[in-house]
## 1
Amino acid sequence: MKHFLLAILFLGLINVGQAQITVTSATFPVAGDSLITATDNLPAGIDMMTGGGNQTWDFSNLQAPFSQSTVFRPASEGQDVASFPNANALTAFGPGEAYYDSNASTFEFLGYTGTDPAGLGIDLIAKFSPPVVERRSPMNFNDFNESSSNVVLPFAWEDLPPAITDSLDVPIQPDSIRLSITNERTDEVDAWGTATIPGGQSYEVLRLRRWEISNTSLEALVPLFGWQDISDLVGNFFGADTTLTYNFYSNIAKEEIAIVTADPMTEEVTRVEYKTDEVFTTNIKNLSATKADLYAYPNPAIEDVRFEFANLKNGQYNLKLYNILGIPVWEDTFYVAGSRTIEVDLSNFKKGTYLYSLSDMNGKTITTKRLMVLKP
């Protein structure tokens, strides 16, 4: 009897050990990879509070109207590869490029090129010092890492658009200005278990809880006074920004199985980006990286419908719904910065075919599409 109990205990320990996976550099993205994900900006019923072992996370009810592909190319194909000699992969980064170093121990974000992140209209080459570590290998339960990185971007006063320089109330014209971005991260692998994504595929995963504080400031070199912080004179973009994400990694997939963004104060889940298996991508469209568009889902809809704004310039937009006779039955105005998701209650709508139309504040129609409403 004693030997039987010991055998049962031994088998139990083996099963526990198998559940606590180790994620290695074999899952790091490299040149030639295309990572396919989708994003739900209105997730419901997802709780990230519980850590520890043998957890179960059900993401199967997430919804998204399209998938997006992140394509990794050889760094040698980049226009600014000379500025990133350690890079071996790159991806598109808005109008510019993002450079990475994927090696045996880390997957590092080296920097990017393109338009400045503060919206000042300046083209730049931003190199992080030291590089931002996105993933580490091997990754195990209870791993803990703290890191910091910064980038300083100097440029001449004359490089700023006149709309910016004219709005700055400075008594003396600065010799030059610089944009400073500092990132501090705390990464803790605080849980392991099983995660299920839309389509029903389940993965054994490690959960990495990432707490990040990003501080952005704009400084001017003023004669006689040295470097002065002028962030308050430019706009609300500058200052400290705190983000909290939960990143789910498997030992067999390149993509994160899920990246859950939560409110850093309440930990309420606000956004989930998740892996989309190719077998299930037939029901959603692949998003163009540049085309402004609007998507309705589910379509046909019954009780409510989500509208996903994609790739829009920052500004106010008007959304209208028309019945089959062309009579407006619902409308509202929304501020959109790139992308946004809103939900519309259809409980008072009759069964039938409707049109939804998006226009900018100048009245220019961006798109008009069909929406089917069903009733049980």
## 2
Amino acid sequence: MQQTSSKQTKQPLRRAAKDSRRRAGISPIAMLVAFCCSLAGCSRLRQPPPANFVYVTAQQTFLRDRVAAVSNRTGMVSNGERLVVLGRERRWLKVRSPQGEVGWIEERLTASQKLEDQFEALRRSSQSDPVVATASTSDEAYLHVAPGRTTDHLYLLAESTPLSLLERASVPKPVAPGAPAPASAQESGTAPAPRMEDWWLVRDAKGQTGWIYGGLMDVSAPDALLRYADGQRIVAAYLLATVDDPDSGVLDNGRTVASIPEYLAVLAPYQSGLPFDFNQVRVFVWNVRKHRYETGFAERNIAGYLPLQIALRADPYGKGAEAAEKLPTFTYRVLAAGEALPVPDPVTGLFRPGRTVDETWRLEGNICRRVLAPGAPPPAEAHPDMKKKKVEVPKRRRRS
């Protein structure tokens, strides 16, 4: 009798609970749906994992729909583009391009975000560095994050890309495995001195900054000066002044050029790893009477370092109206007597010369006069180490 009464008591309670849920409009299925929605809402509040990026190092390459010998192309990406990494399989990456195309790319054709950050740090640290010369690429060339052929690279520059040169470094040239040592080293039994090669820190018109092998660029220099280089390499050339000569005989697109430029040039031998940027300074002036270039100033056997300073200035130490006139003035640095020729830093390849002396000259007509303070020492003589050993100048191979 007690069991029957308990059942009779529970049944009205169950019916009352069921009626209350029905009145509230809540069913077990609805409660489950509400619980799932609450979980989805919580997931939306969580921050998504940070995107993983890579950058294209190849000039151009295709994205593929699968990692297989036979695949379909899903898109194309170009050098420097940033890709979002979606997956990874063996040596392949699944990525999404800036155009929204998704596909697989070989990992060896990409660079990491860490390398891009290093290039950005290099750009920021050198953005205020002075431009010491200008040049253009003679072929396609990669920008490296540090001097050297085995260093990481990212941006690919097209042929004839204009460049601003910022700094030079010299590093050992890689030796091919099994290559024989030079005959001189074999005879002496000593380790051969490494062959050096020059690299330049450059900036292009987009602001991309990096190191480029010096053999893949041509320094900007007027064609008219090449015949006067006397077998030397023009390191940099700068416009100093212009001279009016209606009868110059110089033609440009069939018309005679009446305004002839005069140039300041610094030169060096065709050799890498030199402990100076240039060893000659020359000014090429225009002879109006003979309608030709002549040397208005020359200094040789010096250890000179970039950059040069060029401006229109008066002579603060001169007298008379001529000294007050603002004329083309240039200043260059030479290694002081008693200072040893620098050697490249074994890590960075940069040259850090010791004490240097500034030489300042003004172009007055067709001659150059030194801007010299009263009581200042006379112009520095050729550096003693430059006199002791003559730098060999190999013949330049003629390009076809």
## 3
Amino acid sequence: MNVIEVKELRKEFKSYSSRSGLSGAFRDLFTRNYKVLRAVDDISLQVKQGEMVGYIGENGAGKSTTIKMLTGILTPTGGEVRVNGMNPHKEREKFVQTIGVVFGQRSQLWWDIAVQESFRLLKKVYRVSDEDYETHMKEVIETLEIEPLLDKPVRKLSLGQRMRCELAAALIHNPPLLFLDEPTIGLDVLVKMKIREFLKKINQKYKTTILLTTHDLADIEALCDRVVLLDEGKIIYDGRLDQLQKNWVEGKEVRFEFQHPVELGSLEMVSSQFDVKWRQGERSHQWIAMVDGDDDTVSKLMSQVMLNHSITDVKINHVSTEEIIRNIYEEGMSHG
């Protein structure tokens, strides 16, 4: 079953510009100059129950605008949206019961009251029975390790503590669908790992569908099999993360540290039988080889280089998802 169905979704904003001078200001009273900006440009997307999808793109690519339309905060300019079988704008009250939302930059907890008071209010809002609340939230509170925070007002919490409480708050009614917009922004590594573990757990246990936007690609690698890449309001890739890595990684990267300075020419000569690109590393005696080929090719190249030059260190790196995505944005989708 598709939890999210989006067809040719579009959102346009008017951007007004002011004319200069007094006469300009006067004319602006009657007619305004504006440009139409298309933040989301005819995107189509389906997400099945139980999927964890990473929704990524640079700032201004349209990620948050999409999430706001999917959660019913913004009305689309055009296209169709069905989420959990409903139109998020038309069936607002019923719809809100079926989703959980965490915006990294905005809080759904009340600032001045204790965390558990916020939880109680949300329990009422979502009409959750005492029994459901007890069984479900006990586990959430334990897993996220927020028991000691329940009596504290939200304003006294650190960012990491607050984000763990936000996540718990979004799950009070155990929604089948969770929207996470930058949920780990500004958090330290240990807290991020806790949050990731927790999300995996609820996904396995309840088949909770998760749509995640993030700048931290480690979140995506840890959680999502599928990524949707957005650029200037259009989807430029939608598919498996490992496929994206495969398509865009031309081979492996080998870092050589040489004992003495080495010329590019001599490296090219030594490696002429391989499909390899050389570039200089950050350090003075460091060269990096991008090798197209399997592990066998890589080891042959390494032994060839070592026969001819004395080296102090050698490392094989797999290219990170960050680099892959940077390459995609730099090259556009010319292949893939």
